[in-house]
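# step 3/5: fold
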Amino acid sequence: MKEASYREPALKILPWICVRCAREFPGSRLRELTVHHKDGDHHHNPPDGSNWELLCIYCHENEHARVEDAKAGGGGEKDAAAPATHKPLAALGELLKRKRDT
């Protein structure tokens, strides 16, 4: 699939939230969300969206920069900050179930 052909299904399947920074995006700002391939293979586009995640343009750029830094042997110092504990999609399954039941 080309980007144009997987972006639209991804926006239909996935919630309009950046999975890294948890920012929510209204329909008027969807241009700021990008489809990131979890496995890095842009040709792997299962119709269930299992290889996609939505990232804001800033987090998407950061993700690819980190991958490139790692390939180059860089990365600098490790972050000492604790990992994020907020899980913006934790209740998604229950919400979808309720939606199906109505």
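# step 4/5: annotate
Strands lie at 33-37, 52-56.
# step 5/5: archive (pending)
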